[in-house]
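Re: Re: ligand-bound prediction request (bumping)

Still looking for help on this. To restate: I need the protein modeled with adenosine-5'-diphosphate bound, output as structure tokens. Inputs repeated here so nobody has to scroll up.
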Amino acid sequence: MARIVMKFGGTSMAGTERIRRVASIVRRQAAGGNEVAVVVSAMAGETDRLVHFCREANPMFDPAEYDVVVSSGEQVTSGLLALTLQALGEKARSWLGWQVPVRTIESHAKARVENIDASAMIECMQRGEIAVIPGFQGISDEGRISTMGRGGSDTSAVAIAAAIGADRCDIYTDVDGVYTTDPRIVAKARKLKAVTYEEMLELASVGAKVLQTRSVGLAMKEGVRVQVLSSFIGEDSPPADDLPGTLIVSDEEMETIDMERQHVTGIAHDKNEAKIILTRVPDKPGTVAHIFEPLAAASINVDMIIQNVGRDKGETDVTFTIPQTDLPRAQALLEEHRPNIGFNRIITDDHIAKISVVGVGMKSHAGVASTMFRSLSDRGINIQAISTSEIKVSVIIDEDETELAVRVLHTAYGLDANEDAA
Ligand code: ADP
Ligand code: ASP
Ligand code: MG
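Reply:
Sorry for the wait, this slipped through. Here it is.
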């Protein structure tokens, strides 16, 4: 007997037919006395539709009311899945965020899970009832509905798995695992049998949206065993217990998995950043603090920063990137603080992409960054900014060159699938 959390994403839950397929996968997992909790997303496209309604109703929407609206998509699918399981003769019931309860803290629309008291739900699971939980939603400390940021059902699933001490958290999606890069962009992307928490965290944070970044951080902290696998499978497919997908594992476990490790594990891209250049700012102590303090106070995350070499007259240019959605706010804030900062012009560009290569192998191997720069320059792709961490190199390029850059790098690092093996 095992205790398993199964999470199904939006494409898997899109319509009655697909929910029926999900119900049969859940039923197979529950067979043999396993205790099962299922976390579901809203139907694909539904959350976007709800966000759009909020914007139409009030462009300056109150995040607490936004949460009331956007959390509703998951309420629908959790009820529908419970009904479908009941139609198959299973015992099942839904547990909304406030019923579990999933207690959250911090702001609405980007709440964090603080604690989950799942004792009542566990009792029901022990009596053979399948628990169906709408992902993405919780209850704030004021007793109001909260949501955990886009893609947040992954985090709900991992948090539930940690709370109930699950043996495994299976994330069912529309691809059959984590690939060396988005398989929708590079046909030769290879499925990884395993990836370390650290690498997956870095890949997710630079754009591999197959898992929400927070869910990976939480899984790493709580030691939750996560598998990513496909829900688009037939009755004769290998069961999830045989681990057909990609496992997220610790460094130590990775050592024991028999696989040929590359210096680069994966490549991700992100088209959601924007670049700001402030020209002719005073080249003196305190200037960068004047620029970034108001942005930090407004919770605008700055990613890459470049300060150009100072030129004559004690002036320099400062370039940095922020999320595209924050660009109008950032511009307004910088204008407001212009007298303090003392720049000449603000130049903005939201037609950029960030391309990142990630791999723990970089820690012990030099030359990864230079391979990136050489491969991109050989294809005439201009690099506008660079940043690195211990296991990642990122560059900013023109958005139109995204797909080409990802493909070129995938080949350059020897990640392409062997066509004969297919
Ligand atoms: P869900 O609705 O199930 O949560 P998402 O759309 O959030 O699914 O995530 C799955 C998608 O992630 C895939 O369809 C794929 O296009 C994308 N993706 C991006 N990078 C990767 C990667 N490295 N491996 C697998 N999928 C990836
Ligand atoms: N439905 C939410 C979203 O689209 C949460 C999720 O699917 O993970 O962002
Ligand atoms: Mg997702």
